[in-house]
Each structure stands twice: as C-alpha cells, then as structure tokens.
Amino acid sequence: MVKSKQKLKAASLPLILLGVLALLGASVAVFFYLSSSDENQETPVVPAQQKSAAVRGSYDVHLKQDPKDPRMTIVYLYDAKANVETRFMTLPDVYRDDYHPAEFVEGTLYVIRRTTGSDNPANTNWTDELWEYDQSAAGSKVYSAKGLDFRVSPDGKEIAVLHGDTAGSFALIDSVGNVLKILAGKDLRGFGQGKMLNPLFWHGGVLWLTANQGPQITDIYAFDTAVMVLSAYPIADFGVILNESAVEPASRTLAFGDYNPDVEHAAPRMSTLSVYDLATKKKVVIVAATVSRPFAPKWVDGSTVEYNDPHGSGRTTFSTFGIFKK
Predict the structure, then answer these.
(1) Dihedral of CA 28/32/33/35: which sign?
(2) Regarding beta strands 69-79 and 84-92, do their DSSP bridges make them parallel or antiparallel, or are they unpaired?
(3) Do 108 and 132 touch, CB atoms closer than 8 A?
(4) Pick from 62, 50, 51, 70: which is nearest to 87 by CA?
(5) How far, CA to CA in Å, does 130 sit from each of 107, 115, 124, 164?
(6) Lowest mean pLDDT across 99-113, 120-134, 292-306
(7) Distance between CA atoms of 211 and 215, rounded to whole angstroms?
(8) d(CA 102, CA 56)
C-alpha cells in the first residue's frame, strides 16, 4: 500500500511540474504582451493648429543669438517664479536690440523682426515687422512700421502698435492685423511737439500709456478699448521720470518719487515718495527721506507700494489703504 502511494506521488510530480511551468509561461507571455502593447502606443501629438494651447501661463521672453548663425535667434521662455528658462524655438531676423522685442501671450509668441534689405548699417531702407508664432513655429506677419513698439492685450485679441516714425500715433489692431482704431497726436489731449508715446501695460481691456518729453512724464493716458474712450491725466508739474513712477490701474493711483539723477542741486535735499489719485487729483506724501536717492516704486497689490528703503538697505512697503479719505 505504501509502495503504491509512493508510485502515485512519483507519477504526479511531473504533472505538477508541467503545470507550474505552463503557468509561468502564460504569465511571461502576458507580461511581454502588455509591455509590447505599451511600447507600440504612440505619444499623443498636438496638431499644429492646437499647439498654442500646449504652453500657457505667464512667461518672460529671453532672446539670445544663435552661436552657430548670428542671423538666427534662440527664443527662451522664462518662468520668473520658478526661475526656470526653457528653450522654445529658433527664429530668423529677430530685432534683439529693441528694448521690448517680444511677448508671450495666451500661448502665442510675438516678436519684432527688422528687415533692412541690405547688410549696410547706414541703409535707411528698413522697417520693423510684428510677427506672431504658434508653438509649432508657424508664423505670420501681423503689422509693419518703422520704429514699431507693441503691447498685446491679456486675452491676445487686441494689440496696440506704436509708430516710431510718426512719434505720436498708435493703432489698435486685432490678432490678425486688422486696424480697429488709429489715434494720432491730435487725438491725445496734452500731446504736443517733442513728446513721445510710451506704452506701459494692459489692465483688462484698458491700455495705459505715457507721454514723455525727454526722461520726464508729462501725461498719463488710459485707453478703454471696449468703448474706445481715452482718458488723459496731466502730471507735468510733478517732474516725474519713468523709473521713479508706477501706476496702479484698478484705483488709478500713481506712486512716484521726486528723485531725478539728471537734475543737479547746489545742496543736499530731501527725497519724497508720494501717491496721487489721477481722478481726484489728490496728492499725499507717504515717505520723506533726509537723503536723495531713488525709490523705484512698485505696486505689490492694489493698496501696497514697495520701494527702496531710503535710510536702509533692501526694499520696504507702505499701505495706502484709505489714504485719500483722510
């Protein structure tokens, strides 16, 4: 009886081994099948017409000459919060020397390209062209003018373009270059001979600009594109320079210091930092310093001004909440 049981166990052992091997073989086959299926699946590709939705957010644009070809420009997107710079695309004939040559808005890159028609630097037969590019580097010309400057609205639907060759005019165009409105110097109250327009920024559907005479700001303009209405605020009496001023658009408040490096004084003088309600014309001095140095004001939010500490190092802040009600 014992021998028969031993024979049965001996006979069953090969069958058990075969079953285990079969199970292992099936598992391996399933594993390789799933692996090969994953490898054969293609990575989704965003079509060219949809690629502008692939990269969103707020980025600064950095332009660098291609070391292999000086005619080409490498475009980088810079995330200031993360301090990360990412290579985006390479483009020809970008006017890198312009003080505001590019913007990245709603997934679209806007750049100024300068065409000269000649390699001679003395050639006057040149023009500036505003181009827009989607994220597949497909581009189209939107507008052209000599000495062109531009600002794109936050939604990318409107673009303000300034004409350097006419000194005091700008056009409002749509995203494909159709002209919606042209404002010339005669349309800008306070705009006179020797002044230049300088675009600041968009806030919603309102474009903010300044009129400058030399380094001094003489007027501030707010152009509401929804109703095509221009508001003008003269500030020539304050002697404000661009680097010593900042506009808070929601409350229409100007923060400005009276420091001007181009003005010499016989004796040391105080420096003051003030806020000015553009609508009510009420001015309040918020900082009076015993030294003369730049404040470089900046609005942190709707009621907080950040500026250089005149009696220390670094930056400090001042709350302007309710200041004009006192």
Answers:
(1) positive
(2) antiparallel
(3) yes
(4) 62
(5) 16, 11, 19, 13
(6) 120-134
(7) 10
(8) 16
